[in-house]
Amino acid sequence: MEPTSETPRPTEGTRPTIETAREVGRQRIDKFLNWVAPVMAPDVLMEMGKNAAQDKVAEVRGKLESLAERVKDRASEIKDRFIEKARDARDRVVDRYEDIRDKTIYKAKELGKRAAVLGLTPIAKIEQTWEQVYQIPAEIRTWAAGRQEGRVSAAELASEQVKEKHEALLKLIEEQYKQELAEIGRTREIAATKASEHREKAAQNREKAASFKGVRSLVESLKPSA
Amino acid sequence: MNDLQNIKSQIEQSQLSEDAKKVIDGILAQAMTRGSVTQEEKKKILDIIDLETDQADLEADTRQEVAETLETFVSDVDSASQTASDNLDSLDKQAKKESDKLKEELSSTPANPTL
Fold first, then answer.
1. Which residues of B touch A48 (CB under 8 A)?
2. Shortest CA distance to A104 belongs to which of A122, A128, A130?
3. For residue A54, which of B106, B32, B61, B49 has the smallest C-alpha distance?
4. What distance in Å separates residue B11's CA from the closest CA in chain A?
5. Domain that holds residue B18
6. Out of A170-174, A191-195, A208-212, B109-113, which region has the weakest mean confidence (pLDDT)?
7. Distances in Å between the alpha carbon of A40 and those of A199, A205, B99, B109?
8. Is B113 within a domain?
9. Tell me: the pLDDT tens digits for A198-216?
C-alpha cells in the first residue's frame, strides 16, 4: 500500500484537536511504514526490480530502509517536540496559578480583616472559599505530579545495565507517550471548560458588584440623626 | 422611617451575602425602633456594602485571570498540535516523494545484460 495524499486531514479552517492530529499523524506514518515493509521484502524487491541488476536492487533496498528509519526518527522528533511544548504550557499554568493564588489570598486577607471588624465572616472561611475557587484543575495537578514518576530517561536507556532490556523499555516509552498524549488531550478539554466557567462566574460577579451601587446610593442618601 | 423601610426591602432583595444582610438587618431594626439612623450606623452599612462590592470585584478579577491562564494553555497546546500536524504533513509528502523516486529508479534500471 503506497502512501497517498488521501490520508484524512483535519477539517480546513479549524484547529485540529490533539487527538485528531495524533490520529492523522499516526495514520500517515503507519501507512508509509506499512508500505515500505513489504516492499523491502526480498521477493517483492526481486519482482519490482526483475529487470534490474541485483546490485541495484540491493542499493534501492538500502535506500528504502534508510528512508523508513528517517521517517520513524523524524516522526518521533515531532512527537517529542509536541509533548515538550505541552509540558512547558502546563508548567506555565502551574506557575501562573501560584502567582494568582498568592496575590488573591493576600487581598482576601485584607478583606477578611475588614469583615472581622464589621462582624462578618471570619478570615479563615474567606481564605477557604478562595482556595477552592483557585484550585488548579485536578488533571493538571496529576499530570504535573506524575512527570517524573516512572519515566524512562534517555540516559537510563543508554546505560549498560538496561541494554538487554532495550526493546522492553522502548515499548514502555511508547506506552508512556501514548498515555501522556491522552492526558494532554483530556487536560486541554478540561482547561477549556473551566476557563469558560470562570469567565461566566466573573461576569456574574461584575454584575453583582454593579448591583450594589443602587443600594449604596439609597443608604448614602439617608440623613443621620444628630 | 419610610426611607429605612425602603432600604430594608432593597437590602433583602439584593445579592448581598446572608451574613451581610443579617448584620445590616440588625442595624436597621434598631434604627427603625429609634426612628432614625445614626452616623455610625450609616457608616457601618456603607462599609459592609463596600466590602461586599470589593469581594465580588476580587472574585471577578481573579476568575478572569484564571480563565485567561487556562485559555493561554489551550491556545499553546492547540498551536503545538497544529505545528506537529503540519510537520507530519511535510514528512508525509517528503516520504512519498522520496519513495516514488526510488520506485522509479528501480523500475527504470536497465536489465542485466544477457549473454
1. 103, 106-107
2. A130
3. B106
4. 7
5. 2-101
6. B109-113
7. 56, 66, 12, 17
8. no
9. 999 999 999 999 999 999 9
User: Domains in chain B: how many in total?
Assistant: 1
| C-beta of residue B84 within 8 angstroms of C-beta of residue A79 | yes
Residue B77 and residue A184: Cβ atoms within 8 Å? yes
Question: What are the structural domain ranges in chain A?
Answer: 19-144+168-202
Q: Do the domain assignments include residue B108?
A: no
Taking alpha carbons only, the member of A59, A74, A61, A75 closest to residue A27 is A75
Q: Which chain A residues are Cβ-neighbours of B7 within 8 angstroms?
A: 215, 218-219, 222
Q: What is the per-residue pLDDT across A13-27, written as a single tens digit (0 to 9) for each?
A: 444 444 454 555 555
B106 lies in a domain?
A: no
Which residues of chain A make contact with B98, given a CB cutoff of 8 A?
Answer: 67
Contacting residues of B for A211, CB less than 8 Å apart? 14-15
What residue of B is the nearest CA neighbor of A65? B99
Residue A177 in contact with partner chain B when CB distance is under 8 A = no
pLDDT at A148 over 60: no
CB contact under 8 A, A225 and B38: yes
pLDDT at A64: 83
Q: How far apart are CA B71 and CA B25, in angstroms?
A: 42
What pTM did the predictor assign? 0.74
CB A94 within 8 A of CB A140: yes
Q: Cell numbers at residue B66, please?
A: 484564571
Is the CB of B14 less than 8 angstroms away from the CB of A74?
no
Instruction: Report the range of poorest mean pLDDT among A148-152, A212-216, B63-67, B74-78.
Output: A148-152
Task: Tell me the residues of chain A between 127 and 146 that have a Cβ less than 8 Å away from chain B.
Answer: 130, 133-134, 137
**Residues near B28 by beta carbon (within 8 Å), at least 6 away in sequence:** B4, B7, B8, B11, B37, B45
Contacting residues of A for B90, CB less than 8 Å apart: none
- B-interface mutation test, from A27, A183, A219, most B Cβ less than 10 A away: A219
Please report the ipTM that was assigned to this predicted complex. 0.84
Please check whether residue B19 lies inside any domain of the structure: yes
Residue A50 binned pLDDT confidence (cut-offs 50, 70, 90)? low
